[in-house]
Amino acid sequence: MTGVTEIAPDVFRISTFIPETNIQMNQFLVRDDEPLLWHTGHRYLFEEVRQAVAGLIDIDALRWIGFSHFEPDECGSLNEWFQIAQSAEAFCSVVGARVNMTDFSSRKARGMQLDEIIRTGRYSFRFLSTPHLPHGWDAGLLFEETNRTLFCSDVLHQNGDLPALTSSDVLEGARKNLVMTQSGPMKGYIPYSLNTESQLKMLADLNPKTLAIMHGSSFDGDCAKTLHDFAEVLKETAGAF
Ligand SMILES: [Fe+2]
Ligand SMILES: [Fe+2]
Questions:
Q1: Which tens digit of pLDDT belongs to each residue from 61-104?
Q2: 153 alpha carbon to ligand 2 midpoint, in Å?
Q3: Closest CA relative to residue 33, chosen from 122, 117, 142
Q4: What is the domain class of 2-237 according to CATH?
């Protein structure tokens, strides 16, 4: 059910496919002196994700747990992780820390400003505050600066049971998902705001080498172009809601 693939040096994609909804739930573990988990997954996946992480690191060493926005697939099992990882500290945007984590999290979360850095040993992570991208006032993303991996959360979400990593194309799958989720009962998945294009340009300007995507394949082709193109697709598919 849950597979582990190294998609970039020391970046492990922990993927569980949910057939009922045709969606992959991917978490990312970065192995370093201070290991970092980027999104926890739902509470119902905690045991699967825990086992996968335990196969990669000593759970006691887990130091950082970060996520994009307040949703069960991003941080649902955060408090379960705190019960087994004594030195783990959560981080998210300042808004997320103040508005959501003060009530939800059993430990105080670190609120990260735009461009604030966390160093884990060999790697350093730049926090990118991206309100409403992919969604939520509290949204943020993360960029690992040495190997240039951008952790995208729901940006470039593709449905299906897909390969861990591709260099060919993720945009077509992302377009299909946007067509499905920008109208109908699930409309408004990713809003297109006055800031969306400049936010995606900021991400493209980082010139990522790998895009670590929460749902679907991760990508190691032309990342900057794909992020620019995603802005166009989002603009085309977004509607009033
Ligand atoms: Fe989300
Ligand atoms: Fe998600």
A1: 999 999 999 999 999 999 999 999 999 999 999 999 999 999 99
A2: 6
A3: 122
A4: alpha beta
What distance in angstroms lies between residue 130's CA and the mean position of ligand 2's atoms?
A: 15
CA of 76 to the centre of ligand 1 (A): 12
Tell me the domain boundaries of the chain: 2-237
- How many angstroms does the Cα of residue 117 sit away from the middle of ligand 2? 23
Cα 144 to ligand 1 centre (Å): 20
Q: Which SS3 state, helix, strand or coil, does residue 152 take? A: strand
- Report how far ligand 2's centroid is from the alpha carbon of 121 (Å): 28
Could you give the residue ranges of the DSSP H alpha helices within the chain?
46-54, 72-75, 78-84, 94-95, 102-104, 171-181, 196-205, 223-237
